[in-house]
Amino acid sequence: MVVSRHWQTQDEPLDPVADRRAGARWQPKRNVSSSSECCVTRMKFPNLLYVADVAVESTVGGELLMHRLLSRYPKDRLTIAESNLCRSDPSERLSGVTYTTFDIAYTRLLRTRLTRWYGSWLHLKARWIPAALKNLVSDVQPDAILTVWHRYSWLTAGILACRHNLPLHLIVHDDAPIVKRRAHAALRPLYKRDFRSVYRQAASRLCVSPYMEEAYRERYGASGRTLYPSRGWDAPSFEHPPSDLAQEKEEIVVGYAGTLHTPGFKQALRGVAEILRPYGGRLVIYSPVSPETSRQEGWTVPNMELRSLIPPEDVIPTLRSAADALFLPTPFEGWARKKNQTNFPSKLTEYTATGLPILMWGPDDASAVRWAQDNPGVAAVVTSPNREDLRPVLQRVATDASYREELGRNALEVGTKYFAAERAWETFRDAILQVSPENRVTASAE
To answer: Were both Cys, which of 113, 135, 229, 328 would link to 346 (CB 3.0–4.6 Å)?
Structure first.
């Protein structure tokens, strides 16, 4: 089906309650009585083409964040083109939205010793627009291109937008200059120059944390907006922490939900479990790691329980009912520390929604730690890498019921302010709508 290229409009609902759910701003006419007909704000949404190596599906990580973000976009004005590096599960896709796939790589080569060489070739190849995308642009006639920095197709999206004189909207979830696993050393300067060019080209730049936006503004000379990770539109909402949080407990249960990216994460979890043991405490970990493999690696302890990863829609109620506190570690060393200076942990969206106290352990330059320090009382924070410095803070969380309740209440209040689905949608919507066809960016991505 061919979609006309002109910008279309969408009427906002007249019901203020429904309007708030949609994330739109509803206002009556000024200087009219309440019985008068209300003004309907007409919002112009461009015909948007999404081109990226991040699937849009209701699963985990960046895929889930994009699914939540685009779920409110007008379905007849959105086309999603995913590369074959990230084919989405049809059962997890946005309903009523057109999806298509374009091939860019022989995926098996990315899981061999040739990864960096082949990744370097794919980056160079990203300058050549696949025939499938050329045909798609001809059929869809987009008014704007949306992409996410990840792997290779962000560069293709930038060049595509440039060649067709279309505004480019760029979302950055991860620190782009961290490329040592994606390209051979000889190609990294080119990789960084390409990102700089596309970042500056973009009509809107949506960064996952204010610390990323600040760093990129200084580095690339272009300002952006902060697009925090968001909760789901139908996420459970609680006004108060769990009723038993302020009660004394014979056994304290600390929870962790998420993947374990580095050995540092595993050692941090082991450290928490060992500190909890004298207080009769347990650490419950929800992660895709294998219990048998974890035991063979030697980082588990008897008061640690490994459970399977929780489906996205069940994370908040499961953690709220199973744990008394939640743990969020950040690595103190290596490339993982560097990338976490600008990245932002999406698990904070669910952690804060539970109303449970949060214990953070990480360096003071980590974005999550800086966010907590910018919002005093939202979490118990330890910035020393010494495990003994963690002990008294964890001991207080385990034994002081009123402190647990205070932290949980603060987390609920602050988390709703930062991570509500409405806030993310409004930020994204405003970024998209600020660009009109008459004010397109034509800076080259080449």
So the answer is: 229
420: tokens are: 């509500």
Q: What angle do CA 147, 316, 82 make, to 5 degrees?
A: 20
Q: What are the phi and psi torsion angles at 24 (to 5°)?
A: -90, 165
Burial label, 113 (beta-carbon count in 10 A; 0-12, 13-18, 19+): exposed
Give CA separation, 174 vs 112, 114, 212, 235, 411, in Å: 23, 23, 9, 24, 24
Largest CA distance in the chain: 72
Could you report the per-residue pLDDT of 160-216, keeping only the tens digit for each? 999 999 999 999 998 876 655 566 778 888 988 999 999 999 999 999 999 999 999
pTM of the predicted model as reported, rounded to 2 decimal places: 0.85
- CA nearest to 291, candidates 302, 315, 307: 307
d(CA 256, CA 273): 11
**Structure confidence by residue, pLDDT tens digits, 301-312:** 999 999 999 998
- Which residues, listed in sequence order, are joined to residue 226 by a DSSP beta bridge? 207
